[in-house]
Write a structure and sequence with these properties.
10 helices, mainly alpha
Length: about 280
């Protein structure tokens, strides 16, 4: 019979593990509910709007998985240094993770905004003209949310690395409430159409990403982010230099493989920067 009892010398109890996992479980459930609620709100705009937003959601989910893998890879480095009780390298890995993920998010946003019509036509060229037009309207706004999505995932992964899974869950609750309230206001009251759903996504992600960034600066955290803007030029050059290789791997490998590659890429980048700074 399978026993869930841990050894007497285990560092964590079952109660502690459960307290860590439950907020993550509810966070994922809330994100799933948010996706269903989004579709419900957009359904008031008609079939073409539902189809057009669904096409944009495919691109958004693709980018989100990319940024999530990068954020998780960087948080692994941070977890290792936290476990080794090396506060200096833990703080450095936290800064590197935030810098790299946000800068790559900005680069993706720039590419998507600049080549938005080409991307939509290349991926969904067989769709009807009105559906593509709706997708273009929605994507012209949601593309600007990618840096904030990157910040949200990097912040959430960093807090989990510190053992604080309740903070990302609370941030997800705030994001869901703000997003649904704005969708109701923009779509049903102000009649902004698909631009309303895109604006609600942008505003809610910017709000939650900003909240997490501020909370990462708190001195009460196990590891605090005290000087984010320091040496930004170096971080920008580093991200620009490494982005083409990571993008090529991401586009040409199957989903499961490129998700792991992005994870390993972020892991290696943070390790390299911590090692070079320590020399």
């Amino acid at each position: 019979m399978l026993s869930l009892r841990l050894d007497s010398n285990a560092r964590f109890s079952n109660k502690q593990i459960l307290a860590f996992l439950l907020p993550i479980f509810f966070e994922q459930m809330m994100l799933a509910v948010l996706g269903i609620a989004d579709t419900f709100m957009v359904s008031f705009l008609g079939e073409s709007s539902v189809a057009g937003v669904a096409l944009v959601n495919r691109i958004d989910n693709f980018v989100k998985q990319f940024l999530l893998a990068l954020a998780q890879g960087g948080s692994v480095v941070m977890s290792q240094y936290i476990g080794a009780r090396d506060d200096e390298k833990s703080a450095l890995s936290l800064k590197n993770n935030i810098r790299i993920v946000i800068l790559i998010g900005v680069l993706i946003m720039t590419l998507m905004v600049a080549f938005r019509p080409l991307v939509l036509k290349f991926l969904f060229g067989g769709a009807e003209a009105d559906v593509l037009e709706i997708s273009n309207q929605c994507f012209s706004i949601t593309a600007f949310s990618y840096p904030f999505v990157a910040l949200y995932y990097a912040g959430s992964a960093s807090f989990r690395a510190m053992g604080e899974s309740k903070i990302p869950s609370a941030a997800s609750i705030v994001m869901m409430i703000v997003s649904l309230a704005l969708k109701y206001l923009f779509i049903l009251k102000l009649d902004l159409g698909v631009r309303g759903t895109a604006l609600s996504t942008l505003i809610s992600m910017a709000l939650v990403g900003g909240i997490l960034l501020v909370m990462l600066h708190s001195p009460h955290n196990k590891i605090s982010l005290r000087s984010y803007i320091h040496n930004l030029y170096e971080a920008s050059y580093f991200a620009f230099r490494c982005l083409p290789r990571s993008s090529a791997l991401y586009l040409w490998y199957p989903y499961d493989i490129h998700h792991r590659l992005c994870f390993l890429l972020s892991y290696k980048l943070c390790r390299c920067r911590c090692s070079s700074r320590n020399r």
